[in-house]
Structure formats: structure tokens, C-alpha cells
Specification:
Elements: E1 5-6, H1 9-28, E2 33-39, H2 43-58, E3 61-64, E4 72-77, H3 82-94, H4 96-101, E5 106-111, H5 117-126, E6 132-134, H6 142-152, E7 156-157, E8 165-166, E9 179-183, E10 185-186, H7 197-201, E11 205-206, H8 209-221, E12 226-230, H9 251-258, E13 266-270, H10 279-287, E14 294-296, H11 304-309, H12 316-329, E15 334-341, H13 348-361, E16 365-370, H14 388-410, E17 417-425, E18 433-436, E19 442-445, E20 455-463, E21 468-472
Helix pairs in contact: 1-6, 9-10, 10-12, 13-14
The protein binds S-adenosyl-L-homocysteine, iron/sulfur cluster and FE3-S4 cluster.
Iron/sulfur cluster binds near residues 190, 232 and 233.
Length: about 475
Amino acid sequence: MRKYKILSECEMKKHSEYIEKVRTMNLNSGVDKYAYIQTFGCQQNVADSERIAGMCEAMGYTVCDTPDVADIIVVNTCAIREHAEKRALSIIGQFKHLKAKKPSLIIAVCGCMVAQEHRRNDIKFRYPYVDFIFGASSLFRLPQLIVERVQKQKRLYCPEEKEYLVAEGMPVRRESNFKAWVSVMYGCNNFCTYCIVPYVRGRERSRRPEDIISEVGELVFAGYKDITLLGQNVNSYGKDAIGDDGETYDFADLLSDIDKIEGDYYIRFMTSHPKDASKKLIDVMASSKHIAHQFHLPMQSGSDEVLKKMNRRYDTERYMGIVEYMREKMPDVTISSDIIVGFPGETEEDFQGTLDMLSRVRFDMTYSFIYSPRNGTPAAKMEDQIDDKIKSERFDRLLELQNRIAYEKNQPLFGTVQKVLCDGRSKNNENVFSGRTEGNKIVLFEGNDSDTGKFLNIKITRADTFALYGEKLN
Ligand code: SAH
Ligand code: SF4
Ligand code: F3S
């Protein structure tokens, strides 16, 4: 039985009527209307913002890339670390003068940061020019909130939903026409002691397999080549929807069904939790046609003691076991990870354990974070918070080791020919083109604008720490 509600077609129709209302209001105004969306946080938020942009377009706004001309600004926030919240608050602060210039401007704040009571109060009292707030599970309410804001002429606070909801069929405006994000589930049940996500995103809700498979099928049909399935812990997909007969349809089943879709495309997924990464999942990947041999498997720490305090529910041996099985079944797999340094009570010996695991596993890449206490999480109240100086010194040592490993791991690719999906001109250097290998490694090369969105064969002529360099063969 599913423990959450999927909005019925009838309820979605009600929300479509609000879209129509705003569209009519915008048309009747006789001037062009613009929407600006600013996104912080993870890919889940990026995917949510594509729905927000889709709704804005359906409401008659043109999505633009500067706030100066906007008639509505939506700030989609993140709460994962203090830095993310500070950046969002600072941007919201900068929009004050725009509202002063154009009083009809609507400013809305949504996402994880404003799912926290104290941040909602911050917005209420310190940012009085913000028109309304809504949570990540209430995205579909945006058109309704705009209508109410305009009609009632007062600020609104969309209450947290009483039940967990999943809305299907929302309009979407995708950033790319060859790379796409597809959420397979929302929320998280894991309550890692450092993490705010379960408090701001609610319990796990898996989308129905048929909805996901048809979305991926449509994307492949439309020419998408790189599709990433998203969830905070994709390995628990389906566990919230076990049938009355005890039958489960898990993430490996979903991947295996998606893999049957014909076409030239890669499927990726993130994020996997080591506690439920199964052999079945790895076997499906190894024998599939379309699932990229790339695995993001956050380890967080290489100390069993710290892992226990983090409530991660695996130890370093279990972690190594998954890595070994993966490499046995897919010798070409690239593995990346997330690491937190400076978790409360982390001793020099614990930290050494993390460095040792880096040397044992030899990740292709890691994303490292300095522990940031989050209001309301158990770790924030733990004694022995680590001094900032020690945290940043450990962080530097970690990076130094990982950079060396990443450089060494890239060397065997020298001289090989890689199938690379061209992303277009590099953001750092307009004269160079950038793309990704199956393992998601960055490759830089000389190309043409017509290469964008295409698979190319690139011969690797130099392998560096953060990128490969090569020559186009076709
Ligand atoms: N659901 C995913 C990732 C969630 S957030 C997972 O379980 O792996 C992405 C990363 O942010 C986490 O993997 C963790 O390394 C980091 N992170 C989460 N909370 C943090 C905090 N309070 N301080 C520092 N890093 C944190
Ligand atoms: Fe946070 Fe842990 Fe859930 Fe990931 S699995 S979102 S780190 S609580
Ligand atoms: Fe941030 Fe929310 Fe993602 S807290 S990392 S945007 S789930």
C-alpha cells in the first residue's frame, strides 16, 4: 500500500484552471510578462525548478535569465549547509530594490530552506517584501498562490501539506534538449544524524513505475541522450509501495524495465545509499545496454565509529564489499563519493581512517564537505564539535590525497578512444568544447557548435586531475 496520495486528475485539473486564470490575467495586461527563477541546491531542486519554469511558461510568462526585467521571481532554496542558506538569504535581500522599483513584482521563496519554521519566520519578519512561501511538495500550488496573492493583496504562507503528495503531469521546461532529470522518488527516511533533508523533504514517496517509464520513453523518443534518475536514496525505491501480496518492485526492477526502451542513450541515477545497494542492482547494471557504468556511492566517513554516530547503518567492510563486487562485475565502472570532514567527535585517528579508505577504494572523484551543524538535527547537539581550523586543515589534506588519486586514475585513459556526449562550449573557456564520458568524466576538445548534444569519438591525448583532453575522430 502506498502511504502517500497521488493527486487525482480531477485535482490536477483544478490546478490547471489556476494556470489558465493567471494566463488570462497576463494576457489582459497587454504587456509581456517575465519570470526569473534562481535555484540553489541539488539536482532534485534543479528538476523542481524545471517544473516551476514549466508552470510559469504555461501561465504566459517568458522565462528570462535576469531578475531586472522580471514580473515574478521564484527563489528555490537549499538547506543542506549554512553556506547554501546564507547565499539564498543574500540573494533574496538583493531583490528588495527591484520590488521598490516595481511594486507589482511578485517575489516567491520555495524549497528546502523555507520548510524550516525558523527560516519561515526569518522571511516573514526580515524580508517583508517576499509575497509568498511554498514547500517542495507544494510546487503544483504556485498558480493558485499567484491568483490568491493578486486577489487578496496580502502576503501568503502556504501551510505544509497535511499529507504527503505526489503530483504527476505538471508542465516542465527542460534546460537542455539532450540531458534530462527524472525524479523517481521524493523525500528520505534515513535520518543520517547530520542531515536536514528528511525534515524538509518529508518521507519517501516512490512514483509509480508506469509514470517513470513513460516519462523516460518520451524523453528518449524526443532525442534525449543522457537521463539521470533522481532520489535521495534511489536504492529504497518501491519500499513504500509493497503490494498487499508482499510483492515488491524495486529500483533494480525499474532499471531493468527502463533499459528495454530502444534508443541511443545513457541512464544514470543518484543517489545510492550503501546500506541498500544490492547485488541485484549491480547485476542489472552490468548486463544492461543503457545503464552507464558509473556509480555515485556516498561513503561520508572511513571510520566505523563515526559512521555509527552518523546513523549510516553500514561499516567500512560492507562498503568495500560493494565496491569489490561492482569492480568484479563492471571492471570499467567509475565510482564517486561524498565525504564529510569534521563530524562531531571525529578524532585524528577517525580522519586517518577516511584517508585510508580513499587509498583503498581509489575513487575517480569525491565531493568533500566540511561538516555544517543543522538546526534540529541530532549531530548539531552532539558534544565535541570540531574546531573550524582543524576542519579546514583536514579538508585540505583530504583534497590533496584525492587529487593525487584522481590524477593517477585518469592516466590509463591516455590514448584510448572515448564515446563522449558533447555539452557544448566549455563554461570556463568559450574556445573549447566540453563533454562527458560514460563514466561522467569531463573531456575538453576542439569542436563545432553542431556537435552539441551528439555522441562523438574522442581520442584522449592528455589526462589531468579534473579533466581529460582529446581530439575528435568523427
Ligand atoms: N541523499 C544523498 C545526498 C544528500 S545531500 C545521500 O544520502 O548521499 C549531499 C551530501 O551533502 C551528502 O552526501 C553529505 O555528504 C553532504 N551533507 C549533508 N548534510 C551535511 C552537513 N550538515 N554538513 C556537511 N555536509 C553535509
Ligand atoms: Fe540525508 Fe542521509 Fe537522507 Fe542522504 S540518506 S538525504 S544524507 S538523511
Ligand atoms: Fe539542498 Fe534540499 Fe537538495 S536541502 S541538497 S535542495 S534536498
